[in-house]
Amino acid sequence: MTEFIPAAKPIIGDDERAAVDRVLRSGMIAQGPEVAAFEEEFSEHFRLGRPSVAVNSGTSGLHLGLLAAGVGPGDEVIVPSFTFAATGNSVALTGATPVFADIEPHTFSLDPVAVEAAITPRTKGILAVHLYGHPARVRELEAIANRHGIALYEDAAQAHGASLDGRPVGSFGEFAMFSLYPTKNMTSGEGGMVVAGSGEIARSVRLLRNQGMEKQYENEVVGFNARMTDVHAAIGRVQLTKVDEWTRARQANAAFFDSGLTGVVVPPVEEGAVHVYHQYTIRVGEDRDGFVRALREEHGIGSGVYYPIPNHRLPSLARYAPALDLPETERAAREVVSLPVHPSLSQADLERIVAAVNALVRAGA
Predict the structure, then answer these.
(1) Distance, CA of 111 to CA of 173 (rounded, Å)
(2) Burial grade of 117 (CB within 10 A; 0-12, 13-18, 19 or more)
(3) What's the rounded Cα separation, in Å, for the pair 69 and 50?
(4) Last residue of a domain, one of 210, 240, 270
(5) Do residues 247 and 164 both lie within one domain?
(6) Rounded (10°) angle between helices 230-240 and 14-26
(7) With CB atoms 3.0 to 4.6 Å apart as the test, which of 41, 66, 123, 192 could cross-link to 61 if both were Cys?
(8) What average pLDDT does the segment 12-40 reach?
(9) Ranges assigned E (strand) in the chain
(10) Which of 293, 295, 305, 365 shows the shortest CA–CA distance to 333?
(11) Residues paired with residue 78 on neighbouring β-strands, in sequence order
(12) Does residue 207 lie in a domain region?
């Protein structure tokens, strides 16, 4: 029987297990020296030039980053609808209103024209998502933010190591969030990293993640328990030493797909951009769901649809977008399929994927 190729495959090896054992033996399991070291090493590794603050999830990172940036009731934050729900959720959790804008068809990123049209006197900022590992249109979005006197924030959950014009994602906005969920380009088992554009935001996130305390029992603000453990940080520190190699493998796998796939729209890379291929997302024809089913059932190949229901149509967020028309978002939700691109793929796997996709396209699946 042909072995199934999964859509994603987290890599946890002996080095990570040894790091966890080291922390368990130390007796210091909650937030401690491993977290502090991970924060410093994360900023240094990705050349961010900014402080990083570790939290217990990417969603917490977005939520606390927005709170630290002063977002709250009465404010609006412009977000894409074509993204994971955590982006819109995090805005709503602050008491602010997520305002959904359409995407451009190539990068799946916020369309700057749509963003500018959505700005009102209540707009506090723009939350750009570097979707699938490709940088968002931050040049244009930064210019819009500056022109209107509003902020730019970054959801870099899927974009560890991506860059634009030599500048790493995570270094553009007032804050940025990187997810460390198991299927991301690197993981800490679970967790997130907030990269702060100022010392004030970094300190605020540190307070908010730790019940509002910098010193024990001296609570300065009402906060959360959103700390990362030393166990998770130890995993993340090991993964930092491997993520560049994994990124190169993802890019090589993507290049193989680019050269071999026919009859589908492969992901373009904009001039000056470095794509890290958290997902290799293609567009297929009318029957996307049939294509996905045939890929699995006939060829033993997993895939993902990210995302089949836009945020503005989710029951949880639809109230923020009554009768909203986002045509490019809707089209992407109907057409996208993410193929396996993870570093564990063999050459034989890559050839199987290309052959299967091309055969299904020829057959009109």
Answers:
(1) 17
(2) exposed
(3) 15
(4) 240
(5) no
(6) 150
(7) 192
(8) 95
(9) 52-55, 76-80, 97-101, 123-129, 151-155, 163-164, 167-168, 175-179, 192-196, 273-274, 280-283, 336-339
(10) 305
(11) 99, 126
(12) yes
Query: Which CATH number is 99's domain given?
Result: 3.40.640.10
Among 194, 210, 191, CA closest to 62: 194
Length of the chain: 365
> pTM score, two decimals?
0.96
Is residue 4 one of the residues assigned to a domain?
no
| 2 within domain boundaries | no
pLDDT digits (tens, 9 = 90+) for 57-105: 999 999 999 999 999 999 999 999 999 999 999 999 999 999 999 999 9
Q: Does the pLDDT of residue 14 top 90, yes or no?
A: yes
- Co-location of 227 and 79 in the same domain: yes
Quick one: 116 exposed, middle or buried, by C-beta within 10 A (0-12, 13-18, 19+)? middle
Alpha-carbon span 83 to 290, nearest angstrom: 22
Are 342 and 215 contained in the same domain?
Answer: no
> 69 near 198, Cβ under 8 Å?
no
Q: Where are the beta strands (DSSP E) in 306-352?
A: 336-339
Burial letters 168-194, b for 16+ CB under 10 A, else e: bbbbbbbbbbbbbbbbbbbbbbbbbbb
- Tell me the residue range of the domain where 342 lies: 243-363
Q: Mapping DSSP to helix (H, G, I), strand (E, B) and coil, where does residue 17 land? A: helix
- Based on the structure, what is the number of domains in the chain? 2
Q: Which residue has the tokens 């909650």?
A: 30
Helices and strands counted in the chain (H then E): 12, 12
Quickly tell me which residue has 């029957």 as its tokens: 287
Confidence of residue 8 (pLDDT cuts 50, 70, 90): very high
Cα gap 50→238, rounded to integer Å: 21
Whether 168 and 205 map to the same domain: the answer is yes
Q: Could you tell me if 59 and 208 lie in one domain?
A: yes
